[in-house]
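As noted in the main text, all predictions were made from sequence alone. Below is one such record, for NB-ARC domain-containing protein.
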Amino acid sequence: MNIVSPHLLPPQDRRPLQKCIKDEHVQIVGIYGITGVGKTTLTGEVAASMSNIFVDVVFIIVSQNMYGEKIQNKVEVAVKQIINGEKVLMILDESKYLSKDEAWILLTQVVGKKVETDAKLKKIETDVMEECGGLPLLIQVVGNALNNLKIMTHGISLSR
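Prediction:
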């Protein structure tokens, strides 16, 4: 499942990063810039467009409210794959998190007002909010995915 549309940025904006990632002599690529210029979108699009050349694509969101153990576990899995000679794309993204109220507003904007009127859906969305940890991109991605599913399917999606 692609979590980011491959058409948000023009292909010419992705090419330099794709070239660096494909270069066997390059092991680390840094992307930097001020907040809001599209660094996360760019890396997400490149990861989606290049996922077929990697055994795994690991997207680690580092934020003030993430537990270090969660991050360490993801890194450990990726490092084991790399040690075993597998090609892994690891993306570390520092992200600011939203307060519970801000996160709820964003999720409601993505999913729609039905989340406020349907008790079953509201419970599911509350669980999603906890799992997303206030990370805006994650809330948008999960919200978009849930927006297209029937309520009966939500429980299955959350347990995976």
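The radius of gyration is 17 Å. Residues 68-83 form the longest helix (16 residues). These features were considered when defining construct boundaries for the mutagenesis experiments described in Section 2.9.
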